[in-house]
Amino acid sequence: MILADKIIQLRKKNGWSQEELAEKMNVSRQAVSKWESAQAVPDLQKILALSELFCVTTDYLLRDEIETEQITADEPSDKKTVTLSMAHEYIALRKKAALMIASATFLCIVSIIPLLILGALADLTNIGISEDTAGIVGLCLLFLINAVAISMYIVCGYRSSHYSFLNDAEFDTEYGVVGMVKEKEKAFKKLYMRLNLIGVILCVLCPLPLILSALANNDLISAAMTCLLILIAALGVFCFIYVGVRWASLRRLQHDPEYIENDNKKRAPSLFDTVRTVYWLIVTASYFAWSFIGGAWHISWILWIIAGILFAAINAIFNYFENKDA
């Protein structure tokens, strides 16, 4: 039995049409038709892919005298296999998720801006906004914006939940998947580097508005410059997250165990995660106590600037000890 007949027999045994086999092999239907009519012979890579797809040996496919199927000796595996269509779907999902996650993070960062602006406006007697009204409205907006952001995080997690197995290194990829992903990564790399560079520049330059506000000696201008600082930093973070989520999806699909292991370590809860959560809870509680009890809306916003500087110092200390232990 020649190779063409064996391909027809194995395809029909699996209940596939020529179109379905072509899709699984990442070739055209015409290519499969030529194989089965003996007008063309698959190259070595395609032979190996056919052997893996049909679970038969390459000897069975290539040697005409062997007419009895020789099943490969590989043990059954519980690993999930990522097909080409699944890979395309996952990349598209993560592209949308990247925009949504970056936007949600942006909203979380800027959610404090309405509170700062209203607090500054309350100091202007001709505006007619009391400090209590400014505080209540600002807090309502803060919680509303964060509620929207959290909803966006939840939606992203739900949409990608059926691809959660990609968080582990134990999965297989269909023939053609890794090559396709590498091409997409190569095309995306320029945007990845450009937005990372923009993010770094924005984060480095974000303190400038606060420094310039010292020249004005005006509380309203100082509050506005602080809001501008937060906005610039939020845009920088947006750039990092948008390209970071997309880059991570491409690296995972390439079945890079070292990358997946390192990424999962970053995602794993650590002592710093706990300290960070407690730290910002204390800062938030202190801000509200100072603002409500002390009635210091006009100056209490400075607590966020101090807290940010201290957090950077704490972060540096933790990084030092983590690198020392590594």
Describe what this molecule looks like in 3D.
- This protein is mainly alpha-helical.
- Helix content is 72%, strand content 2%.
- It contains 14 helices and 2 strands, in the order αααααβαααβαααααα.
- It has a two-stranded parallel ribbon with strand order 1-2.
By DSSP, the count of extended strands is: 2
- Describe the biggest sheet? 2 strands, parallel
For the largest sheet, list the strands in their spatial order. 1-2
Average pLDDT: 77
Please report the number of helical segments. 14
Proportion of β residues? under 5%
pLDDT < 50 stretches: none
Features:
two-stranded parallel sheet; 326 residues; 14 helices; elongated; 2 strands; mainly alpha
